[in-house]
Design a protein that fits this description.
By secondary structure, this protein is α/β, with parallel strands linked by helices. It is built from 5 helices and 7 strands; from the N terminus they run E-E-H-E-E-E-E-H-E-H-H-H. Strands 1-2-7-3-6-5-4 form a 7-stranded mixed β-sheet. Strand 5 and strand 6 form a beta hairpin. The termini are far apart. 36% of the residues are buried.
Length: 220
């Protein structure tokens, strides 16, 4: 476990794979791309089949034509009291097409924040990932801690559903092995425990605006 004096590290440039409960490529972590690297960012989404992006604590990404062989068009925004979602249409020169949904959240399991929004977000992203073709979830964050917290909570919720038991410390330690300093203090782990306690005692409200519209399924 991290010590109370260890700051949360920045995510390194490029992309980092983190395994989920049953898949070695369930999560893909990336730092916010600079303007010059934006074409490679969208190319990464296309090559990895990503259809859902969670942006934690950074501004929205902008698409433009001619992004490293991929045409990126900002399609529409969705607003709710829980966050902002942007939809992008990606196309290649061979006529391939897909829709990517990008959700921006200012924080995830931040100190002092209630766990309910984090639980609802994880629950809805699970539902979306299950409805669409299997693909990694891309998390974009400048700091490692919120991205690691989402991955850990996602794994633990799935573990609880499948096995009726969880091991918070083991899950967090396995993430720290691949992403040193992801949980910089005991309070980081305590927030995971409290989120699971809340999950067991209440039913989270899903982010229904993240569900793919039925009329658009053929585009995705």
């Amino acid at each position: 476990r991290g010590s109370g004096s260890t700051p949360s590290p920045h995510l390194a440039p490029g992309a980092t794979w983190l395994p989920g409960l049953q898949s070695s490529g369930e999560f893909l972590l990336a730092s916010p791309p600079c303007a010059a690297a934006t074409p490679q960012f969208w190319r990464l989404l296309w090559d990895c089949g990503v259809h859902t992006v969670l942006v934690l604590g950074t501004g929205p990404l902008q698409g433009a034509k001619g992004e490293d062989g991929i045409t990126v068009t900002h399609w529409e925004d969705e607003l709710s009291s829980q966050g902002r979602t942007q939809n992008y249409v990606l196309e290649d020169s061979q006529g391939g097409r897909k829709v990517v949904k990008l959700l921006q959240q200012d924080s995830f399991l931040a100190p002092g924040a209630p766990p309910q929004p984090a639980l609802a977000l994880a629950d809805c992203i699970h539902s979306r990932q299950e409805q669409l073709p299997r693909a990694p979830l891309l998390l974009v964050a400048a700091q490692a801690e919120p991205a690691a917290a989402f991955c850990a909570l996602s794994i633990l919720l799935r573990q609880l559903e499948l096995e009726q038991a969880v091991d918070v410390y083991t899950v967090a330690r396995s993430i720290e092995t691949l992403l040193p300093g992801a949980f910089p203090s005991p309070s980081s782990l305590l927030r995971l425990y409290r989120a699971l306690e809340t999950h067991l005692s209440t039913v989270p409200t899903p982010y229904t605006f993240l569900q793919p519209p039925l009329w658009n399924e053929k585009m995705i």
